[in-house]
Amino acid sequence: MPQSISPVSALFLANMTRIQRRMEDAQRQISSGLKLERASDDPSRVVELVQLQTNRTTNVQLRANLERERTEINVAESALQNAVKLMDRALTLGAQSVGSLSTAEQRMLIREEVTGIQSRLVAISQSTVNGRHIFSGDLDQTPSYALDPATGGVVRLQYAAATREVLEPGGTTFVASKTAHEIFDVRDALDAPTQQNVFHALGEFMTALQTNDTTGVERAIDAIRAASVHLNATLSYYGVSQNRVEAAITTANQYDLQFQTELGQIRDADLAEAAIEMSQADLHHKATLAAHANYRRQSLFDYLG
Question: Domain holding 83: CATH number?
Fold first, then answer.
């Protein structure tokens, strides 16, 4: 017949098991640095932990996308600054070409420089970042414009809108870029160049200079001036995009810090607290052993005196 365990022995074993678990848990936290390593460590907080980890992973990816957008926007903004300077130079050349002392020969020399300006603007329209043509909209693997070697003019290779949107941490989106068509080759509904058309204005200027057409030069200067105003407005647009992306990155960084803090509060161990718990559990372990060793079962002779 199996012997039953006395209540005192059962209590002793229960206490030893509980103390041993405390010691093992404290040791595990000290070794791993985590207080919530397995679902069984704290089942009530597992769902919260998983959600925080998911939120942080999403935020990290969003921030990486924003940083990529920031690079492209910064390159585009710098390129457009150069474009504005080139148009300012074109206006200066225009003023020189209509002066009373300007000759046909001088206008031909001015035309050569304007041709160089047109060429550099086409190169700007072909700007790339990490293999992407940043002014080619949704068809960013190829440039939208090129110089026509036969005529010295500009040819449109393709047309695509820019529909890609930038996602901000709050869930809002915005289009941060424009296409070369919107920047350099503005056209009306009938595909005719408008006064904001940079390429067309410079092309008209070159033609007027070549034919020594003073009236044509004056008209071209007006068009260049209008196109220059448009370029400055586009530059401002990219400035706004820069500010918005920078603000979004700042918010994403703040979210990441918040997520890390909340994850740490749930998951990370307090090593000082774990060490104290380990020490206290060890003391309780020794005290329990000592108390049990001093305990002796009383016999009938003890009661008889």
Answer: 1.20.1330.10
